[in-house]
Amino acid sequence: MDAVIIDAVRTPVGKGKPTGALAGVHPVDLHAHAIRALLARTGVDPTLISDVIGGVVGQIGEQSLNTTRFAALAAGLPESVPAVTIDRQCGSGQQALHFAAQGVRSGDYTLAIASGVESMSTIPIGSQTLGRDALGPRMAHRYPDGLVPQGISAELIAARWNLTRRQLDEFAAESHQRATAAWKDGRFDTELTPTRFTRTDGTETELNVDETIRPTTTVDILGALRPAFYHERHAARFPQLGWHVTAGNSSPINDGAAAMLVTNTETATELGLRPRARIHSLTVVGDDPLYMLTGIIPATAKVLDRAGLRLSDIDAFEVNEAFTSVVLAWLAETGADPSKVNINGGATAIGHPIGASGARITATLLSVLEQTGGRYGLQTICEAGGLANAMIIERL
């Protein structure tokens, strides 16, 4: 049995607190908004939903206790519809789609919602491990020199692939230029849902654009920023680092949510739903947890092999821009055409609400394929701990 995507929607991505438009919006409400918009757009009977799978990284506080269940209820789904919250770090939203597709393919699910949310304003990154040993003594024994924060991994990648500061900044500036052009041309319209919320303090807020896109960003402006992750301890351990990673060539702190409806072709036909894409191939890989973010390279090779396709068969790529050094290393290893990668801009500009990003880039990839007339799209996303998901979809 196949699995098809009926629709995908996302909120605009808000910048972090204190000034972000979505700061102060409860993550359950943010998540529920995307789910509710998806149901409204598809017109599907919510009693037919087999499961709601939601990606969330900071599963603490307002994003704890299987928050996807509360989001589904807040969205108005019947109490009989189950929900689950998963964490594959930055790939959580994409893994939610993988699980939904696998459930549909197996016949265990008829209709499933795959989604993701992250309110990084409410739950700052790393909150769930603050003051705690998240790794334990056995990990310390296996990696006696210790692992490093993602920013240091991004620096290690830049050094290993001989990437210059200017290359990182040029890629970041191009991301902002592409995203700005996409907004001006209305290329995000099909994936966005009108977004108006009541904050937890009772005030109203509305957001109709991705807040962290900066149309005036230039390489010279980015070049004036200081390294974001320099630390004497890491500098002593890794003397090869050039300290090229800055806030400008990394993804920002964001809030946002996205949701997708997945089913099979037969059910879609029975319900009068028009699929937008077929989920062609899926994979997930593990990689070096020190470099941490390089898994997208073997994941791309693996998913292409599984699909029986070549890189040249792919019409559009979405490669999550957690750090520009990661995408540049991927480009160097794969030889992909840069003009096909993140055509409408990437996370450096649009933003990276970590639990939602895997679902957000699917919504964008669908839009890009429809806008360009492309057949195959490949998306991949790096994840903490040395993991990566990859997926190929086929436009229908």
Summarize the structure.
This protein has 396 residues and is an alpha+beta fold. It contains 13 helices and 12 strands. Helix 1 (27-42) packs across helix 2, helix 3 packs across helix 13 and helix 10 packs across helix 11.
Q: What is the strand tally?
A: 12
Sheet with most strands: 10 strands, mixed
Structural class, judged by helices and strands? alpha+beta
Question: What gross morphology would you assign?
Answer: globular
What string, H for helix and E for strand, traces the elements in order?
EEHEHEHEHHHEEHHEHEHEHHHEE
Specify the oligomeric state. single chain
| CATH domain topology of the domain at 3-123 and 251-395 | Peroxisomal Thiolase, Chain A, domain 1
What value does the Rg take, in angstroms? 20 Å
| End-to-end distance | 16 Å
Helix content: 25-40%
CATH homologous superfamily assignment of the domain at 3-123 and 251-395: Thiolase/Chalcone synthase
User: What is the mean pLDDT?
Assistant: 97
Keywords: Acyltransferase, Transferase
Pfam family, one: Thiolase_C
InterPro entries: Thiolase, Thiolase-like, Thiolase_C, Thiolase_N
Family: Belongs to the thiolase-like superfamily. Thiolase family.
